[in-house]
Amino acid sequence: MVALWMLWACGASAPDAAEVLAAADAHDGAVDHVVGECGGCMLGMAGDPAHAVTHEGYELHFCSEGCKAGFEADPAAGVARLAEAVK
């Protein structure tokens, strides 16, 4: 949240969610509208369909309920974390 505020305060715009989600989708080698690696762990852990959430047409798999809950609490911050992971 603080990082997004800093970006806004410095005049930078928030990352485009559609672009970030497409890049995260491709990160696992399959372009299928499923982000199979945990965005809460910055794509460092395998995600589990049991901890999935749908966001802007993509199914995101998280490694745990904690990572899933973190994304659900603030999807914009979750997308910003994904943007950092796919740079």
List keywords for this structure.
three-stranded mixed sheet, 4 helices, 3 strands, disordered N terminus, globular, alpha+beta, 87 residues
Written description of the protein model:
45% of the residues lie in helices and 17% in strands. The model is unreliable at 1-9 (pLDDT under 50). It has 87 residues and is α+β, with helices and mostly antiparallel strands. The protein has a three-stranded mixed beta sheet. The chain has one domain. The chain has helices at residues 2-9, 17-27, 65-73, 75-85; strands at 34-35, 48-55, 58-62.
Topology, element by element:
Blueprint: H1 2-9, H2 17-27, E1 34-35, E2 48-55, E3 58-62, H3 65-73, H4 75-85
Parallel strand pairs: 1-3
Antiparallel strand pairs: 2-3
Q: What would the principal axes of the Cα set say about the shape?
A: globular
Strand content: 15-25%
Secondary-structure element pattern, one letter each: HHEEEHH
DSSP summary: helix tally: 4
Query: How far apart, in Å, are the first and last alpha carbons?
Result: 19 Å
Question: Which sheet architecture does the biggest sheet show?
Answer: 3 strands, mixed
Return the average pLDDT rounded to an integer: 87
Work out the radius of gyration.
12 Å
Number of strands: 3
| Major sheet strand order | 1-3-2
Which percent bin holds the helix content?
Answer: 40-55%
Low-confidence stretches: 1-9
Protein structure class: alpha+beta
